[in-house]
What we know:
The complex is a heterodimer of chains A (115) and B (111).
Chain A: E1 4-7, E2 10-13, E3 19-25, E4 31-37, E5 43-51, E6 54-57, E7 64-66, E8 76-78, E9 87-94, E10 105-106, E11 110-114
Parallel strand pairs in A: 2-11
Antiparallel strand pairs in A: 1-3, 3-8, 4-5, 4-9, 5-6, 7-8, 9-10, 9-11
Chain B: E1 4-7, E2 10-14, E3 19-25, E4 31-37, E5 43-50, E6 55-58, E7 61-66, E8 71-76, E9 85-92, E10 99-101, E11 105-110
Parallel strand pairs in B: 2-11
Antiparallel strand pairs in B: 1-3, 3-8, 4-5, 4-9, 6-7, 7-8, 9-10, 9-11
Amino acid sequence: DGGITQSPKYLFRKEGQNVTLSCEQNLNHDAMYWYRQDPGQGLRLIYYSQIVNDFQKGDIAEGYSVSREKKESFPLTVTSAQKNPTAFYLCASSPFSTGTNTEAFFGQGTRLTVV
Amino acid sequence: SQQGEEDPQALSIQEGENATMNCSYKTSINNLQWYRQNSGRGLVHLILIRSNEREKHSGRLRVTLDTSKKSSSLLITASRAADTASYFCATTNQAGTALIFGKGTTLSVSS
């Protein structure tokens, strides 16, 4: 099945720990994105990547880091510098930049909780 | 920075009724997209309307775009309980490189 897979579905983090959320796609898409969603809120852009080995900060990049070593993978690390990491994290991909009239495909999300 | 804002924030209707959601945005766009999110799940693309289009249909969905008013509307006709979800409009950031979403409209359809 072609698609975008996020893992794990649920993740618990202790204060001061870094955690990495996985996002893999087999759609051969160039662009990948990470969003954060808080309860009752819309999606806020954390980081995005249009091509391998390149990525840009979104609106709320502080406390997060990413890498794009392979076209199909775009992991997100939530560092201890992120003071309020409890949220629902969504990964998405698109064939190329979404400015060119293309839709984005989303994973099923990872719910991160600080304990 | 949120480009689109949906209205209303919440909408409750009976099965069979029509549901209309509105989206306003701030800057010029190449296209506007609507997505649906079931509770606790990822978003699913519904429809994309280009800036030179005024109306688009897909099954029970009808989307309109008024670039002069910087607004769009999503109409779901003959709603079903399965349409219960949050609906988001999305446009692109200023660089045209990523989607920016509004806060969404939560639709509840009761049977």
